Amino acid sequence: MKNIEIPLQHEKTASYKFFEKLPAILSWSMLALPFVLALLSPLVAVFFIVAFILLWFIRTIALNVRVLQGYASMKRHEKAPWTDLLKDIESGEVKTKNAPDWHIRNIERLKKYPAKVKPSEAVHIMLIAAYNEGLDILEPTVQSVLASEYDMKKVILAFAYEERDGARSEAACLELVKKYGKKFMHAEAIKHPVTPNEVRGKGGNISYAARILEKKLKKWKIDPINVQVTTLDSDNRPHKFYIAALTYVFCLVPEPKYVSFQPIPIYTNNIWDAPALMRVIATGNSFWNITLSLRQHMMRNFSSHAQSMAALIDTNYWSARTIVEDGHQFWRTYFRYDGRHEVYPIYVPIYQDAVLAEGYRRTLKAQFIQIRRWAWGASDIAYVWTKAFNTPNNIPTFDKLAKLLRLMESHLSWATAPLILAFAGFVPILFNPDDIASNQLPSVISTIQRIAMVGLVVTMYLSFKSLPPKPERYKKRHGVFMALQWVLLPVTTILYNSMAALNSQTRLLFGKYLDKFDVTEKAVKK
């Protein structure tokens, strides 16, 4: 099998280390550029800053259009008659009354390109990773799986819990298997032992559990190609139609090994309880995930995702050498199959928690650590460069170059765009107080930003539409704070998004690697 593993530290070449440093070099250079241009040529600096802001103004408009489209699509799919649609796939004929047009087209396509798996043959593994969570977090997740409109005798429930330092989930996992196990095809709690050369993180944990389950499937004579594995964090609660919708898409694919499936992570489980800053960040992340569902070329495995057991076996499961095992799994599969890999959206949500820890200060810190962990995906740039251009493969040059550049641009924008949009307009006047263009620049930028604020109305509207029912412990006036919270948007984008991304990239620059998965603390208000 191809070597698709991240090299150990002593195995990294000079080229690999350079591309680890490259994100920080590019980001800090981009942040310095307005200052350099202002010193060299005030007019060039003004044109650069205006062009940059106009570019993001256009992107903001496009994102607002996409989030409206994506939200409407998600709501339509939440109401689709998935049970009937699956029966149509099984029979190969459209019998569902008022079937959606896309369903009719899918049935016609199946006649030309038959899928390998029928709905009656599909088996699902719901693999829940646990570290220090208790029953208050884990039990609602199990209950949400059981509430799925799907036959639970075709669903395997597995807890992957840790033995390592600080782990406290064992008792809860064992109790939940005992309490709910008989409702599933099979249920099991699997302890991941401390293992050398593994980052202390989720990748090694769920991989260990999946290998145990692979042996069980072999014993039961279940073909791995028929099995879809969905990874869930302890607070993830799938929509009642998630498993059915996943089965539907899975049973349309001619070659399921070459596809991952991505539902829409929506951070609303505890949105009423989270502090205002965390609510803004959670809502922004939810809307970004909705937008991505319509941009398949940008999609990567993220958070909860699904992949066939056959593909997981071929890739030796998830990497145990990175804390971003979800996004990295896309690249592992991409290079394992010489570029023959895509991510298909599942337009139904998996509900997750906004960040909420015990105490406000701990919550603020936990939020920064979570985003910094996500931003550690910048470490994949060196991996992608090495596997794409320094390792023999049969991937078309344009495809692998486009994916590499898109990956680099996303991390560059993540780290720099909020800072440049907020402050670059004042840079030329600092160095050229008598220059006319430099003096007019803040006014021009302010006008553009006021127009762009119209997009905030879209965000506020959808944020209220997507709220779960208000807990009885909160009075009506609490909804007012849900509207006022959006004044914090500049704070969240700068202090959290930009700074967390710059922190991750600068750590890579100086070789200060994140060697453990900092589990986000989860608290529950009652």
Word description of this protein:
The structure is a single chain. By secondary structure, the chain is an alpha/beta fold. The chain has a domain at 117-375: Alpha-Beta Complex (Spore Coat Polysaccharide Biosynthesis Protein SpsA, Chain A). It contains 19 helices and 8 strands. It has helices at residues 14-40, 42-78, 82-91, 101-112, 135-146, 170-180, 202-219, 242-250, 276-292, 309-314, 325-336, 360-375, 380-389, 397-423, 427-431, 436-452, 454-465, 478-484, 489-509, and strands at residues 123-130, 155-162, 186-192, 227-233, 237-238, 259-266, 305-308, 342-351. The chain has an 8-stranded mixed sheet, sandwiched between helices. Strand 2 (155-162), helix 6 and strand 3 (186-192) form a beta-alpha-beta unit. Helix 1 (14-40) crosses helix 14 (397-423), helix 5 runs parallel beside helix 6 (170-180) and helix 9 packs across helix 19. It starts with 13 loop residues before the first helix and ends in a 17-residue tail after the last helix.
Provide key terms for this protein.
526 residues, alpha/beta, Spore Coat Polysaccharide Biosynthesis Protein SpsA, Chain A, eight-stranded mixed sheet, 19 helices
Order of helices and strands: HHHHEHEHEHEEHEHEHHEHHHHHHHH
Rg of Cα set: 24 Å
Please summarize the sheet with the most strands.
8 strands, mixed
Helix/strand class: alpha/beta
Helix content: 40-55%
* Separation of the first and last Cα atoms: 51 Å
Large-scale geometry: globular
CATH class of the domain at 117-375: Alpha Beta
